[in-house]
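Quick one - inputs below.
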Amino acid sequence: EVQLLESGGGLVQPGGSLRLSCATSGFSFSSVDMSWVRLAPGKGLEWVATIAGLGGSTYYADSVKGRLTISRDDSTNTVFLQMKSLRVDDTAIYYCAKEMEEGFDPWGQGTLVTVSS
Amino acid sequence: SSELTQPPSMSVSPGQTARISCSGAALPRQYVYWYRQRPGQAPVLMIYKDSERPSGIPERFAGSSSGTTATLTISGVQAGDEAVYYCQSATGSATWVFGGGTKLTVL
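Output:
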């Protein structure tokens, strides 16, 4: 069974940093693209970043480029999202998802990031 | 434009058919994916590549796409279908966009 488990969310002040983790199991992690998607309060889903398998090319939404960095550790089957220079509008539930040609499936349960003073 | 436009909300009675639209200029060239998100839960993939159903998704859920508009059709709507539905498509190589979401209310 494929499982994704996010962690690392919390309360951080504007301008601060946070690192999210997504531990995975049940599939061949190193060959799979992984993504982060967020859901801000009162808003819709927003794709944040993707990291490719087998090479690790990265792609970002314009809204996070230069502030958020996606990475992966194939030895521990974990994907990360390093967040810096956080803004109030980064407040959201952050989900990681396994990305295939057949779509984003499955998703983790999410981790809440609150940026507030 | 890479935007996807969905109606913010719709309501249907149990047993009726719900049709949720998703419009975007790039849709003639890109596949559409649909997700359901119930309150407090993670999104779930319902349709991929315009009209394919993942295993475990009931046949009541169907997808179609024509020109710049894709449609998610839910037949025989049930109370448990109440959720926010999002469409998604690629905007380029490994970049993605979601529609704004449609909140489906079952009366």
